[in-house]
Amino acid sequence: MSVTVITPPEAIVSLEEAKRHLRVEHDSDDAYIEGLIGVATSAIDGPMGWLGRALGEQTLETEVSACTWRDDPSLPYPPLLAVESETPSQDGRKVRIRYRAGYPVVGEGDNRRSTVPAPIRQAVLLMVGDLYANRENGGPSASAAAVSMPVTADRLLQPFRVYFG
């Protein structure tokens, strides 16, 4: 089943959190660190990610058979937040589903926080730390597929991994 990202995911780890984790007190690497957060997150998040689930809140779209949708209205890349639209094909055999998935951000202003489980957020921080310390292994321009996962991050993520059969 093909799933398209319509609206990219919200960040699940802030620059400030990553800098605290890395023990970086200067601002000269901010853009680089933000890039590493993006690479680490994209390696595990959403349709292109290893984890098989949506992390930051995002809008996804897929097409399923009308019979399947009627009998089993489940969608890939949990957690499901809301179905935004259901558009049947002209022949009625398929349905295009647009939906919001991921862990929501709650709060306002300075009190905004991600509801992504702590082990997943920690795994992203570990991956950022690994990329920061080993710059020759990848950086903001690295593809998500090229990012190696530290063993501890893998162990933190395993209980959350969704396997499609």
Automatic annotation (TrEMBL):
InterPro entries: Phage_gp6-like_head-tail, Phage_HK97_gp6-like. Gene3D superfamilies: Phage gp6-like head-tail connector protein. CDD domains: gp6. NCBIfam families: put_DNA_pack. This is Phage gp6-like head-tail connector protein.
